[in-house]
Amino acid sequence: MTKPKIALQLWSIQEDCKTNLFDALKTVKQNGYDGVEFAGYHGHSAVQIKEMLEQLDLAVAASHIPFEALQDRFEETVAFEKTIGNQRIVIPYASFDSLEKWQAFAAELTQITQKLQAEGLTCYYHNHAHEFTEVAGKSMIDELIKDNPQLRLEADLYWLAFANVAILPWLKERETKVGLVHIKDMQEQPQESTEIGNGILPIKSYVEAAKALELPWLIVEQEAFQKFAPLEASGIDYLQLKDIVEEVYQ
Fold this sequence. Notes:
Shape: globular
Protein name: Sugar phosphate isomerase/epimerase
Pfam families: AP_endonuc_2 (PF01261)
Keywords: Isomerase
Order of helices and strands: EHHEHEHHEHEHEHHEEEHEH
Number of helices: 11
Helix content: 40-55%
GO molecular function: isomerase activity
InterPro entries: IolE/XylAMocC-like, Xyl_isomerase-like_sf, Xyl_isomerase-like_TIM-brl
Radius of gyration: 17 Å
C-alpha cells in the first residue's frame, strides 16, 4: 500500500507566511514536507503561488476557502485554485445557533458542492468541536453530509478528541466520507495543541486508521506553541509523524 504524503496546514505558520511566503514555503520543504494546505494567499496571485510551488517542488494537498468566497466570487475562486493545481476545496468553519440555520447552510453547501463537482473540484468540510455541541443531541457534521453525497470530510482528529468523540469508530462509520485528516497532538494541561509525540493523543492509531481509509494525505496542524517557534515546531511534527508512518506502513 502506498504511503500517504505529509502536508502542513499553513495556518500553523501564518505569521511567517504573512512576512515572507516564499521563505516560509522553502523552510516547509526543507523540513521534509511533500506539500501544503493553504489558509489564505497573503496577497499573492495564483501565478505567483504556482511558481513558488513549482520552484520548491511542493504539491497542494488542499486549500481552506471561506464559504463566503465561494458564494460571492465562485468563478474567480475556482480559477485561482485550478491555476495553482489544487483539486480539494475545504470549508474551514461554520457556526449557527439553531438546527434550522444549520439546515439552511447545509442546503447552500449542497449547491456549492455540486457546482465545484462540475468544475472537477471536490468540496470538503473541516470540523472543530462545536459542531457536536451547538445543537443539543445532534451532530451537525452528520446534518451536512446526509443529503449531500458529493461532500467529503476533512476530519480534524484533535477537535474530535476535544469534543470527546470516540474517534476510531466515528471514522469507521463515515469511511466513505472522510477524505482528509488533520493530525495534531494535544497537551493535557493546559488543553491545547503541541508537537506530535509531546502530547496525550494516540497518533499511531490515527495513522493506522488513515491507512485503512487509504488516505492520500496526512495534514499536520499545530495551533499552540509552548517551547518552539512555529516553523521549528512544524519541523518536529514532520519528523515525529514520518517515523510513525514508516512504522505503520512497513
